[in-house]
Automatic annotation (TrEMBL), chain A:
Species annotation: Halorubrum yunnanense
Taxonomic lineage from the root: Archaea, Methanobacteriati, Methanobacteriota, Stenosarchaea group, Halobacteria
Enzyme Commission number(s): 6.1.1.20
Record domain B5: where: 292-370
GO molecular function: ATP binding; metal ion binding; phenylalanine-tRNA ligase activity
Gene Ontology annotations of biological process type: phenylalanyl-tRNA aminoacylation
Protein name (Swiss-Prot/TrEMBL): Phenylalanine--tRNA ligase beta subunit
Binding site for Mg(2+): D348, D354, D357, D358
Record's catalysed reaction(s): tRNA(Phe) + L-phenylalanine + ATP = L-phenylalanyl-tRNA(Phe) + AMP + diphosphate + H(+)
Gene that this sequence comes from: pheT
UniProtKB/TrEMBL annotation, chain B:
One Pfam family in the UniProt entry: tRNA-synt_2d
Any one GO BP annotation for this protein: phenylalanyl-tRNA aminoacylation
Protein name: Phenylalanine--tRNA ligase alpha subunit
CDD domains noted in UniProt: PheRS_alpha_core (cd00496)
PROSITE patterns linked to this entry: AA_TRNA_LIGASE_II
Family named by the database record: Belongs to the class-II aminoacyl-tRNA synthetase family. Phe-tRNA synthetase alpha subunit type 2 subfamily.
Entry-linked InterPro entries: aa-tRNA-synth_II, aa-tRNA-synth_II/BPL/LPL, Phe-tRNA-synth_IIc_asu, Phe_tRNA_ligase_alpha_bac/arc, Phenylalanyl-tRNA_Synthase
Entry GO terms, CC: cytoplasm
Subunit and interaction comment: Tetramer of two alpha and two beta subunits.
Binding site for L-phenylalanine: T339, Q382, I383, E384, Y422, F448
Organism (species): Halorubrum yunnanense
Length: 578, 502
């Protein structure tokens, strides 16, 4: 879950609540769903929250939410914007993998040390969340005074260009460096470059933003040093590139709202996609950004009442909406419906239901009285679940300790240490269902049979007293290309008798008892299995079907598992007992 | 006639003419007195012995009484000290007399109260006088104590003995003395001859069949000695917790679900309205399997789910601005939650189309790539439950979960508003640890979004919740490291000794 670092002095300034203590802020923020996590080394308070309200990733957004919470602000707020002077031209050379760009100009922002740090934090947190690690959206913020706009023609507005470049054919001085580097060199030699290299590596052309003087931004990797923002910067150029126009536009809105809270005036920019460039089909090739248009959704009064289980007067609902930073109007008809206006920094409202949730939060879920629903249904266990349970009861009655082992294992444990060949016809020799990218050598596939788990457990328990009679009714799986999910999932019954006098007879006696319990007929014709001693191994045949194997474990298997007592064991398909 | 060895010994020790006490017979036979009592009762029941019981009052000196025999009663010492200081002539300060008498601590109060009771003198304004006519050597209480210490009958009034008893100087008790005399039958039996029966160590089938058990005596065991603990098999402690949960949920009207562990991402995530670029769907968190993609998913359902991801559900719905590929949806992975089962049941693919109201649950395994530590495993059991009905409210959700957790002793549930991609409103559930009283997270819940239920063809409300069974087990069993319980690292002794929960 995202974490936002808050300087409470900043919060006092931005909310105008100069007397509120840190503890009071913590309490109020808990009410908004931000949970106090701890302090940073610099004394900032850290709050964790669910990743829906990404407009709260910085102190400015948190302060805005608090002002609504306190009732100091109500309804929807949209900052004033000035008409565009700057243009972002999108060249057809832009790589297809990262086609979209957006941006804004902000003038007169008062960036002191704290505000600058907050801005950088917001940028990084947006990268991590909505930006999906900069892949979906990456933000660059520049000192506009250091950008020299290139008029497209004599007398026209200044512009910058988003284009694709030969990664070895251009060079610039990136942040935190002193030498000119090509994009390829940045990815190889620069710390930040190495971190984000996988986002652009392999592209024929690398994304780049140019002004008249040359390349000043290499999205999504790093900005140029020339346009670096400092506490002296008053005029800012914000640019975002990414794989989805809506996403970068919303990220841009959140940045602009934060800068507006710092006293900046937002000035729009034009974004012109060239004829040969990919443009966002839903918005066209010529955009004016940021787009602060509000959204509207209709919410039924009735739905609010049934979902929250509370009777409301329409005025109460409107009040709740306003305290949630929304605006609502309604007509008093038979069924009241609210037209709700949603500010452009919200990224979490996908459905009218999300607005009902906002009403619930503003009303206070704590104020709802729990009630047990007056709905009658009949309960019951699933048949297989009852069967598994009955078999466990039988096994436990025969003295077996009931086990619960992992379903994931390794080929070594499942096959090699049991002397079984993968893809063989022996029980346990089924084709493995393997994990595509295993994280550990111990868990690379699903187990094809349960006996290896039992033997592993015996291996871990050689220091404990014998006899150790263990059993498991559990999941096994193997490849099955004809199946629904292409994985054949089964339940096996496995039992092992480990003691000085463990014998085939001991295992068979117990197996016979289980079969008797379920009214089934057991036969044990002789067979061979690599895990068992020849001549002391049989196929488990239940009601005429070959369903498993029984025998004395091969000494090689015992020695492999450091066992110094004989082990007799059986394993068969649970369905045989149905 | 045959009698068990110990009865025979007692019979032979008894006499037809003299009453013999139990103690006497114990000395004569070398048996323990309680063995003799047992044998004597058995012999009486056989009519061979008659038993007489005599109840005797006994008087024993207490330690305090014994002290006064030697040093004199405190009040007498006080009297003598008064005489020595001429208090028979004029009043003397009480402190002086006490000092002279050498009385200390509680003895002072004892002396003063009994001094007054016996009229040995008078005390007024802290001054003491003694009555010159009293004879301190003729105190009946002192005389009775002196007699008792000699073992003589105190020959005192009942009132004096009561007084000594209430002063705690004597213990009065009753004791029963039993004595036995041979009856005529007893004499006859001895005359005709009695043989001792055999003592056997084991009751054998032969003894039972032949009836010989009637004539044998069983050797005595040390019944207090330790025996090796018997070990039966036991159901796994986590299975027991699961059983308990299932019991509770079935009792609350929930039906159990089942379904595949390896499933398509479609059922695991896409139906849940989890965007395909959601961080939880990256390869870091899921266990993708190297099998072919899943073909058999109804085309219409795929189309509805895709459309919902892209454009939202309903007139005012918006979709995600995230990529969506059918190929990814069909990939097979181990389920990260059993909500995939809920999706299958709600869609009707798991059985019949469901009409409200319905309640369903499962307690089944899920797979997540987490860091292994005392509270996290790669595989764990998830309790999943949902209720489908018309017009369910957040209040119904709260009421249902309060009831469920109350069954496990967890009360004062708190509902913290939360965000899940698949429910709205959503709540994290917090409750008080039944032992530590600490507030702990005990589940995640919410009402399924219409983007989830709509494409599945469900047009009423469904509220759902999930919780790790291991978390509940640790809460209710006090286990501290989940790895002791689950998997091949388990210690068989831990499983054998874990306390049974019910």
């Amino acid at each position: 879950m995202p974490v936002v670092d808050i300087d409470t002095d900043e919060l006092r300034g931005l909310t105008g609540r100069t007397d509120t203590t840190d503890a009071e802020f913590e309490e109020d923020l808990f009410g908004l769903g931000l949970e106090f996590e701890g302090e940073t080394d610099d004394g900032l308070l850290q709050f964790e929250f669910a990743p829906d309200r990404l407009d709260r990733l910085s102190v400015e957004g948190v302060a805005r939410s608090l002002r609504y919470h306190y009732g100091d602000d109500r309804g929807v707020y949209v900052p004033e914007t000035n008409d565009p002077e700057w243009t972002i031209e999108v060249d057809e050379s832009v790589p297809d993998e990262r086609p979209y760009v957006t941006g804004a100009v902000v003038r007169g922002a008062d960036l002191d040390e704290g505000a600058l740090e907050s801005l950088i934090q917001l940028q990084e947190k947006l990268h991590a969340t909505m930006g999906r690690g900069r892949e979906k959206g990456a933000i660059g913020i520049h000192d506009l005074a250091m950008v020299k706009g290139a008029p497209l023609q004599e007398g026209s507005e200044p512009s910058i260009t988003y284009r694709g470049v030969d990664p070895d054919g251009v060079s610039f001085v990136p942040l935190d460096a002193n030498d000119e580097l090509t994009p390829t060199e940045v990815l190889a030699e620069h710390d930040t470059g190495r971190t984000y290299a996988d986002l652009v590596e392999g592209l024929d052309r690398h994304p780049a933003i140019y002004d008249e003087l040359g390349l000043f931004s290499f999205p999504p990797v790093i900005n140029g040093k020339r346009t670096e923002v400092t506490t002296g910067s008053r005029e800012l150029l914000v640019e975002l590139t990414g794989t989805d126009q809506w996403t970068i536009d919303r990220m841009c809105n959140i940045i602009c709202y934060a800068l507006s809270a710092r006293g900046g005036t937002v000035e729009k920019v034009e974004v012109n996609y060239a004829d040969g460039a990919t443009h966002p089909s839903e918005y066209g090739a010529e955009l004016v950004r940021p787009n602060f248009d509000t959204d509207e959704k209709a919410v039924k009064h009735d739905r609010i009442e049934t979902l929250l289980g509370v009777d409301f007067e329409p005025e109460e609902v409107v009040d709740c909406f306003e305290r949630a930073g929304l605006e609502a109007s309604y007509t008093l008809d038979e069924d009241v419906t609210y037209e709700v206006e949603i500010p452009p920094y919200r990224v979490d409202v996908l459905h009218p239901l999300d607005l009902v949730d906002d009403v619930g939060r503003a009303y206070g879920f704590d104020n709802l009285e729990p009630r047990y629903p007056d709905v009658g249904t009949v309960g019951g266990r699933h048949e297989r679940s009852r069967l598994e349970d009955a078999v466990r009861t039988s096994l436990v009655g025969l003295g077996f300790e009931d086990l619960l082992n992992f379903h994931m294992t390794s080929g070594t444990e499942n096959y090699d240490r049991m002397r079984v060949e993968p893809g063989s016809s022996a029980l346990g020799g089924g084709e493995p269902v393997e994990i595509t990218e295993p994280y550990s050598e111990e868990y690379t596939q699903l187990r094809t049979w349960a006996l290896p788990s039992l033997v592993m457990l015996l291996e871990r328990n050689t220091h404990n007293a014998y006899p150790q009679d263990v059993a498991e009714v559990g999941f096994v799986a193997e490849r099955d290309d004809a199946g629904d999910t292409n994985v054949a999932e089964r339940r096996h019954v496995a039992g092992a008798v480990a003691r000085r006098d463990a014998s085939y007879e001991a295992a068979k006696g117990r197996l016979q008892a289980v079969c008797d319990d379920f009214g089934t007929d057991l036969e044990t014709p002789r067979t061979e299995h690599p895990s068992f001693i020849d001549g002391r191994t049989a196929t488990v045949v239940v009601d005429g079907d070959e369903v498993g194997v029984i025998g004395e474990l091969h000494p090689a298997v015992l020695v492999e598992h450091d066992l110094e007592v004989p082990v007799a064991a059986f394993e068969f398909d649970l369905d045989a007992l149905r | 006639m045959r009698l068990p060895q110990r009865q025979l010994a007692v019979l032979e020790a008894a006499s037809a003419t003299d009453e013999r006490t139990i103690d006497e017979m114990a000395t004569a036979t070398g048996l323990k007195p309680e063995t003799v009592v047992g044998a004597a009762f058995d012999l009486r029941d056989e009519g061979l012995l008659s038993l007489a019981e005599r109840t005797v009052d006994t008087l024993d000196l207490t330690d305090e009484g014994r002290r006064y025999v030697d040093g004199g009663l405190p009040e007498t010492r006080l009297y003598r000290a008064g005489l020595a200081l001429d208090a028979d002539e004029s009043a003397v300060s009480m402190g002086e007399v006490i000092g002279e008498a050498g009385l200390e601590g509680p003895e002072v109060d004892i002396a003063l109260s009994n001094f007054a009771r016996k009229g040995l003198g008078s005390i007024d304004s802290g001054e003491l006088r003694v009555d010159p006519d009293v004879d301190p050597d003729a105190d009946p209480e002192a005389a009775a104590l002196a007699a008792l210490v000699e073992g003589d009958d105190p020959a005192a009034d009942e009132a004096v003995l009561d007084q000594l008893d209430s002063r705690g100087l004597v213990d009065r008790a009753e004791s029963v003395t039993r004595s036995a005399t041979l009856t005529e039958d007893g004499v006859d039996a001895l005359m005709t001859g009695v043989e001792a029966t055999e003592t056997v160590s084991e009751l054998t089938p032969e003894l039972l069949a032949s009836g010989e058990w009637r004539d044998v005596e069983f050797s005595e065991y040390n019944v207090e000695a330790d025996a090796p603990t018997a070990r039966g098999g036991r159901k796994h402690v986590l299975r027991r917790t699961a059983d308990r949960v299932k019991d509770v949920l079935v009792g609350m009207g929930f039906q159990e679900m089942e379904g595949p562990h390896a499933d398509s991402d479609f059922w695991i995530n896409d139906c849940l309205f989890m965007p395909q670029d959601h961080p939880a769907r990256t390869h870091w968190d899921r266990f993708a399997l190297d099998v072919d993609p899943m073909d058999r998913i109804p085309d219409e359902l795929i189309a509805r789910v895709e459309a919902t991801h892209r454009d939202g559900w309903g007139v005012d719905g918006d979709g995600y601005h995230s990529p969506w590929s059918e190929e990814f949806a069909r990939e097979v992975a181990l389920r990260g939650h059993t909500t995939s089962l809920s999706m299958r049941y709600l869609s009707g693919i798991a059985g019949a189309e469901l009409e409200p109201p319905q309640r369903y649950f499962s307690v089944e395994k899920v797979y997540r790539n987490d860091t292994l530590d005392p509270t996290h495993l790669l595989e764990f059991f998830q309790i999943e439950g949902w209720v489908m009905a018309e017009d369910l409210s957040v209040r119904d959700l709260m009421g249902t979960f309060e009831e469920f957790y109350r069954q496990f002793g967890i009360t004062d549930i708190r509902f913290k508003p939360h965000y899940n991609p698949y429910t709205e409103p959503s709540f994290e559930l917090f409750g008080e640890h039944p032992e530590t009283g600490e507030e702990i997270e005990i589940g995640n819940s919410g009402v399924f979004r219409e983007e989830v239920t709509g494409p599945l063809g469900v047009d009423c409300d469904v509220m759902a919740w999930g919780l790790a069974l291991e978390r509940l087990a640790m809460l209710t069993t006090g286990a501290e490291d989940i790895r002791d319980l689950h998997g091949t690292l388990a210690d068989i002794d831990f499983l054998r000794n874990a306390e049974v929960s019910y």
